[in-house]
Amino acid sequence: MARSRGEKDLGPAGRLPTWAVRLLCVAFWLVVWELAARAIDASIVLVGPLEVAGHLVSLSLTGEFWASLGISLARVLAGLAAGVVAGVALAALSSRVRVVRELVAPVMSAAKAVPVASFVILVLLWVPSRGLSTVIALVMALPIVYTNALEGIRQTDPALLEMAEVFGVRPLERVRLVYLSQVLPYLRAGFSLALGMSWKAGVAAEVIGLPDLTVGEHLYDAKVYLNTADLFAWTVAVVAVSVCLEALVGRALDAAVKRWEARP
């Protein structure tokens, strides 16, 4: 296959599979990280990946580590689920009623523009700290899912809707046969983005609210006690959970979309 204009021959690396190239890139930056830590030689400022890996292994052998991850994840996923349901419902209503769409538009714009820290401080005035990450995850997910779902509904092929009207397809069947097949790809993209944003924002909210036995509490403790290795270890754990969740959910959603499109 001919190379596109401007694409250079990278030698043997250009013939490696994508996963191998990504693995080499990760290894390169890990080496840079280790060299930087050794050059600085001050663990309070920067610790190397080997020391972080050791701390992460030590943490993973404790029940508190898994309990904290589980509690944080459960609360964030609860907020995410609520945001998805509310976003889809609002998008469906907004697509039918213009007044609702106009009223909701500034709220969604504000939700996307206001800093997470401001939301966290406001929410702390209304709910206990243990419910903070759930509310913040909902606030992060709602505008993303709403925008994508509404766009998917608006981009639905008019010819399919006309065909459904001509053949007298019932409203519920019309939703199943026409709208869902058109909107699912938009929802898949929105859900994937909302998942990552909700998880990161939820953990950030925990750092401010400090609910007991959560990832955010451990991150705050590591900062207060200048335990840089623990700080990096918990951060790696947060990133690993985010990557695994997005991969699992992405595959599940892709399979759901393919299965739905294959239905008669």
What does this protein look like?
The protein has one domain: MetI-like (MetI-like fold). It is built from 10 helices and no strands. It has 264 residues and is mainly α. The longest helix has 39 residues.
Helix and strand topology:
Layout: H1 18-40, H2 49-60, H3 63-96, H4 98-113, H5 116-124, H6 132-154, H7 158-166, H8 171-209, H9 215-224, H10 228-262
Helix pairs in contact: 2-10, 3-4, 3-6, 3-8, 4-6, 5-8, 6-8, 8-9, 8-10, 9-10
- Looking at the overall shape, the CATH architecture is Orthogonal Bundle
Identify low-pLDDT runs.
none
CATH homologous group name: MetI-like
Assign the structural class, choosing from mainly alpha, mainly beta, alpha/beta, alpha+beta, or little secondary structure. Answer: mainly alpha
Assign an overall shape. Answer: globular
Number of strands: 0
Strand content: under 5%
Give a quick summary of the entry:
With 264 residues, the chain is mostly helical. The chain is built from ten helices and no strands.
Keywords:
single chain; mainly alpha; 10 helices; MetI-like fold; 264 residues
